[in-house]
User: Fold AcrR family transcriptional regulator from Tunturiibacter empetritectus.
Amino acid sequence: MSMSSTMSSPRRAPQQERGERRVAQLLDAAASLLAEVGYDAATMTEIADRANASIGTVYQYFPNKPAIVLALRSQYVAEMEERWAHLNEETVAEMSAEQIAHRFVELTTDFVEEHPAYFAILDAPVKYKRSQEARNRLRERIAKVFRSKKPAISQEVAFRMANVALGIIKSMNKLYAETNSKEREELVKEYKVALAAYLNSRLAPFHKDRMQK
Assistant:
């Protein structure tokens, strides 16, 4: 191996790797606690206990509870964006509008079920604002999916459709959080029907006058 190739991919220092593992442990512990007791009842001391860490270690990485929630929120956003990234023109090529609608809803519900702290983090009184660039990136990806299914749609219309589709999905969050598992199944079915109806109406055979309204 040449010296140049060795230098181009430096290994992280053991201390840095330990620090990253410790942060991951603290965030996992915080997520577990938040899922059980909610934001208000969770304490830094309990987070330390769950992570088998000293309270000093927690404060070494996070100055307060809001900082932990912000870190979790950023982590969840990154994970969600990665999931949406797999939904592209190729993966939807053989999908109907109904199937696309179902997949959109399931991307959210699957994530929520795998991350029990999701709603506690979402409802925490902590200011979190994604950059406009990040928000647009997701909408542009969805708009591209819509245009792949119906090329006659303009970029402007497709972007607007992406906003509406995401709005429908986001409106499910509060109801989903407030219902039991059995009712959640029925709720998800209703949202799939609603989103499928919207996408069917917009991805139906192109009518210029209709799309410009």
Observations:
- Residues 1-14, 206-213 have pLDDT under 50 and may be disordered.
- The chain has two domains: 15-63, 73-203.
- The longest helix spans residues 14-41.
- Residues 73-203 form one domain.
